[in-house]
Amino acid sequence: MNDTVTKDKLVADFKVVVADAEELLRATAGQAGDKAAELRGRLQEHLGRAKESLADAQAVVVDRAKQVGHATDDYVHENPWRAVGVAAGFGFIVGLLIGRR
Q: Which residues contact 42 (CB under 8 A, 6 or more apart)?
């Protein structure tokens, strides 16, 4: 679960970086010079690859979350009373902790 949250945060942070880089490209589009044009071209290439990688990573995260959800659903269907017992125990412990405040 924590691994999924970390991947989700990484994907979100990477989207922000890509958006900022695209904005920087747009802002410097008027800059003259062969060197600037070459740098913009390379940056656009890298951004394109980064977007593809981001889409792949996001798909992996979504697929993994679906697998975990299906596994949990299967477990609960196979062991309904155990799942109820675990949920009740968890609720009891949370109730005790809240009651102590």
A: none
